[in-house]
Amino acid sequence: MLFYPVGVASATEGTKASRSKGERTRAAILGRAVDLASVEGLERLTIGRLAADLGMSKSGLFAHFGSKLDLQLATVAAAAERFVAMVIAPSLDAPDGAPRLRAMAEHYFDYIATFEGGCFWGSTASEYDDRPGPVRDAIAASMEAWIVELVRQSEAAGVTDPDRYAFELYAVVMGANSRYRLSGDRRVFDLARAALARLEAELAS
Amino acid sequence: MLFYPVGVASATEGTKASRSKGERTRAAILGRAVDLASVEGLERLTIGRLAADLGMSKSGLFAHFGSKLDLQLATVAAAAERFVAMVIAPSLDAPDGAPRLRAMAEHYFDYIATFEGGCFWGSTASEYDDRPGPVRDAIAASMEAWIVELVRQSEAAGVTDPDRYAFELYAVVMGANSRYRLSGDRRVFDLARAALARLEAELAS
Question: What is the count of residue pairs from A and B with beta carbons less than 8 Å apart?
Answer without folding.
Answer: 119
